[in-house]
């Protein structure tokens, strides 16, 4: 098998495997000179607790990529299952500031866009970054966290939205 065939097979197999990885859906937001930026993301991962930190991955082509790297602050708004309607506008169907016409938004820590009713919002300073595969991997150091008392996040599994079901 030549390298191109191996790469295609490996990529397809990887995509199929990742469809089995259920992820929580979040809206990542930042603000620069009063301009708000936001995008949908499932590439969010808790990294450590001392100091509290997390990891996100932002494509170089994302409209918030450059502003995020300039202001070096962002918020992770973890969506509730009832907020699935926000995914479409924040995944590129609506551009720029128009995305924030959907949902109820307030100014959070550092003036970052905070989604009212999100499961939780984690406000971060950019600690470190590195480049990989057309993305900037961002390690965020947590500045503040707010959360709801109930837990019911929006999940994404096998190309569809899902809800968590607790096992007894």
UniProtKB/TrEMBL annotation:
Residues 18-163 form the Flavin reductase like domain. Pfam families: Flavin_Reduct. Keywords: Oxidoreductase. SUPFAM superfamilies: FMN-binding split barrel. It comes from the Bacteria. GO terms for molecular function: FMN binding; riboflavin reductase (NADPH) activity. The keyword Oxidoreductase applies. Gene3D superfamilies: Electron Transport, Fmn-binding Protein, Chain A (2.30.110.10). The keyword Manganese does not apply. Belongs to the non-flavoprotein flavin reductase family. PANTHER family: FLAVIN REDUCTASE, FLAVIN-DEPENDENT MONOOXYGENASE, REDUCTASE SUBUNIT HSAB. This is Flavin reductase (DIM6/NTAB) family NADH-FMN oxidoreductase RutF. It comes from Paraburkholderia silvatlantica.
